[in-house]
Amino acid sequence: MQASDTRETVPLVAFWAFGDMHFRAWEQWQAMHTPRIECMFSDVRTVWAEEGKPAFCVAPGDIVDKGAPVHYALAQRELARQLADIPLYPGLGNHEFQPDGGDDHVHTGEEFSEAWGKPVRYFWTAGAHDEIICIMLDQPNPFLPGERKENPHVIFPPETLAFLDDTLASHATQTAIIFAHCPLHATVLDRDPVRNMDDDSLDPFFFVENSDDVRAILARHNNAALYISGHTHSGWGSPQLVFTETLNGHAVTHLNLMSPWYTGRFAGARMNAERTRLEYRPDTPDVIASFLLHIYARKAVIRVRDHKTRSWLARWEITL
Prior knowledge:
Number of domains: 1
CATH class: Alpha Beta
Strand content: 25-35%
Shape: globular
Helix content: 10-25%
CATH topology: Purple Acid Phosphatase, chain A, domain 2
Radius of gyration: 19 Å
Distance between the termini: 22 Å
Number of helices: 6
Largest sheet: 6 strands, mixed
């Protein structure tokens, strides 16, 4: 077999990506949340047994539903149990900042770092010869000073943009995969804009408002290949879950990770009419999905798995 053939048949790296998991140490929450997470990881381990373990797993934000230490402790314990020796690369989402009730305070990026042992923005390399550079960006704090309602404007600060630019420049020979909690503007869309079934990248709070600045950086660096985000809880069938655009002559593909907790604007855990207990409203279709990616020298293969049916929903092959 020729070396060129090997580069296209043997992946440089395989990894698994999980959307917003929202661990929360509340008995009523866990009664609905735990079965979905168990369903996902039970099936994931089946795939690992059949296809081999991934090099790592990644979860770009909203790993916890609130930022109090008790929720981090639950997430750490459960993910350590589920992943065992597979490295996890966590990201900072908006829910990591949220207070846990009226008596709690707004939380910080420093608490995220203390919990996971990671900076709020960081990078790592992957592949046998470090052919891949993975870049985790931070979600800006959605709470303005003195406020307890989230600001709907998601704007990457200058230090985040500089970190992205500098990291891409200093690793110019490596294929770059960018992870962030929030998608860029006009990527993933709504299944039914008339009924507004999904939060999507045209809705305030669900796209990066200075996306033009991010795209300008990605355009300057032809090693920028993938931008992977979550945040929207997009349902299965949402247009442009995987979306490729051309920036300054090279392709950048956007992948929006579905949440295994719930999808769609009207689904998830809600208080009943009497406000005495939580009830779970499923989406239609109600899937529990996560994504497996194989990165090759000149292409990436993305597959999405429905863990409820233990079947693959779709496959995309994109050029890098």
